[in-house]
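Annotators were shown the component list below and the corresponding predicted structure, then asked to write short factual statements about the assembly.
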Amino acid sequence: MDFSLSMEQEILRNSVRDFAEKEIKPVARELDEKEEFSYETMRKMADLGLFGMFVSEKYGGQGMDYVSYIIATEEIARVDGSHAATVAAGNSLGIGPLYYFGNEDQKMKYLPALCSGEALWGFGLTEPNAGSDAGNSKTTGALDGDKWVVNGSKIFITNASTRITSGVTALCRTGTREDGRPELSCILVESGAPGFEAREMHGKLMWRASNTSELYFDDCRVPQENLLGPRGHGFYQMLQTLDGGRLSIGAMGLGGAQGCFDLALKYSREREQFGKPISNFQVNAFKLADMALEIECARLILYKACWLRDNNKPFSKEAAMAKLHCSEVMYRCANHAVQLHGGYGLMKEYDVERFYRDQKLLEIGEGTSEVQRIVISRLIGAL
Amino acid sequence: MNIIVCLKQVPDTETQIKIGSDRQSIVTDDIKWVMNPYDEYGVEEALRLKEKHGGEVTVVGLGPKRVTESIRTALAMGADKGILISDGALDGSDSLAHAKAIAAAIKDLQYDLIFTGQRGVDDDLGIVGATLAEALNIPQLSLIVKVEVAEDGKSVKVQRPIEGETLVITSTLPALITAQKGLNEPRYASLPGIMKAKKKPLAEKSLADLGLNSADFGAGARKMKILELTPPPAREAGKIVPGETPQEKAAQLAKLLHDEAKVL
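Structure shown to annotators:
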């Protein structure tokens, strides 16, 4: 066994950490407060190369392994959840399906701009009435001559209504299978297509500086060749995409937990009560020890899942475990971090307040914790 | 224009430094090593000059294998090749010996400019730059915050801040510049840069490779000896100057500065 990272991975971590501390941390609180997606930090993240990390150089990507992508996401999340969301969704959900399931023309057409970060792409899966029951999508795609006609709506779609969004992948019901279940297919809809509208959603508890949208398709007609992969493969593509996406949510949980821990440790060593730093009280030291332990374990399961993926081994179970565990570890770390900050932890002036809110999404997005437990239960043969 | 940048690896400034049981060295077990920040300014300046004038940037590091990571980081930022001077016999050497080894590694290279940091943030000695210039018999321009190379590539004009004024110096090339904070804002190693750096050449040289005698290096050959390391004294609590009005406080402060601190 070898637990060491490669030198490139170490350099990557140092560089992204440095970048996140200097470029994102100073603006994160204000952007969260204003509920504003920043095109400036988006540009800087793109210039650093944070989009298309696992995509081959042929399409403008960096050709790195999945562990590297996860480390980069983790380091952004250590400083801010919203920016990590932009990166994670951009790569796993925006770029991922096009890269893994697109044909050569589609890849050449869309990926270079997505990898350079000039454009973003959304993954339209969730619907108002199809959350955990994603297979029950009501959005339809009907072939009319040489066009797909898309009708329906999607909700909570990340990166789908920025002014640089170039399109979305929409999971659509394109017919009925022989067994009577819906036939699902992914259809690419470019921004500006007639009948397609993406509306930015506001009033979020968390990830307030990331872009979240509702999508509306009203007799939206797109060319027949906008089908992603074979017809009827939509459900499979969705599951594959979510397996990878779970690792990036895991990275956000791990990075967020690390961020909570780093802030809590620093504060606890500086804050004095009863004449000594509060970290010197065993009741607080034990909280910090628990956080350190849980983060270490979370990192092991997440990196192992990535390693399985990089080595072309099955990783669905480990991905579900990593997503579930990392998000729950962040839940506990954020809770401890706010507790250690006392009254100050309730104020926006302290970053742990934002981490506490941002954490909640991780137990809900890309498969709730309950769904992860179902996935794991099935994969261990219990359900 | 060919530029050499000398690079040292130092403990990250966030690292908690602990003094070892020998009271002459620090405990290195949990240290995170990073490129000396002043050397990073040197790397950045070299890359900017290369972008403007063309040529090649070579990074030279000295120390154990772990220094490779800092050299690769400089390559990821955009430098072209690296040299690591690594030899067990170097352990315990002082700055003069380090400069001697670096001089041997670069004396046969083609160069117009050499950058070093104005000092390493570990020992804070600031000796290597000056000693290296002396060993190579080239001008040394120290504590520089601005560098302009002439169009013909034959001279350089630099700025050095002194007591609120700026000293402007011109020099022929080749010359050695020690980089001061304010020279530039170093770039991040980008992800594509990290991938490209994997393929860039990095040569490792022992003292024998450089034609040097290992007896001239190591703890035994030190001209400078460390007698003892002590932690900085704990900071004493501050004092709040009493007074109802700003005028009263100012008068009280002046009195304290005069009577207690004795600085007025």
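Statements collected:
1. Chain A touches chain B at residues 7-8, 10-12, 14-15, 18-19, 47-50, 53, 57, 62-64, 68, 72 (CB under 8 Å).
2. Residues 236-379 of chain A form a domain with the Butyryl-CoA Dehydrogenase, subunit A; domain 3 fold (CATH 1.20.140.10).
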